[in-house]
From TrEMBL:
GO biological process, one term: rRNA 5'-end processing
Protein name: Holliday junction resolvase
GO CC annotation: cytosol
SUPFAM superfamilies linked: Ribonuclease H-like (SSF53098)
Alphabetized PANTHER family for the sequence: POLYNUCLEOTIDYL TRANSFERASE, RIBONUCLEASE H-LIKE SUPERFAMILY PROTEIN (PTHR33317:SF4)
Length: 109
């Protein structure tokens, strides 16, 4: 894990808590990354002594792709979409979901 880069961001932005996307299969079963993300969230909580909310990230990338496609179709976005564009919009979607219903998120232990 790039802990030095994360530490730099934490130092710069001083978050009061973290929101992390938690991957699930569409049928609600864990993916191969679910436990990895849970371990990351637990380490994040341990290192910075701040709460970590785990937000279900199912369909967030698809929603992000749809939003980017709509932006291109409307002429608001001119260049091709990159994976970074999708990740950025998906992260915004996860954060919005958490802001709308923070109690629905799982808390890292």
């Amino acid at each position: 894990m790039p802990w030095a880069a994360i530490a730099k961001l934490v130092q710069e932005y001083q978050p009061s808590q973290f929101v992390v996307g938690l991957p699930w299969n569409m049928d609600g079963t864990p993916t191969v990354l679910t436990d990895v993300v849970r371990s990351f969230a637990a380490e994040l909580k341990s290192r910075y002594n701040k709460p970590v909310a785990l937000v279900d990230e199912r369909l967030s990338s698809r929603e992000a792709e749809a939003q980017l496609r709509d932006a291109r179709a409307s002429g608001m976005k001119k260049r091709r979409n990159t994976h970074a564009d999708v990740d950025m919009i998906a992260a915004r979607i996860l954060l919005e979901q958490w802001l709308e219903n923070p109690h629905a998120a799982e808390q890292a232990t």
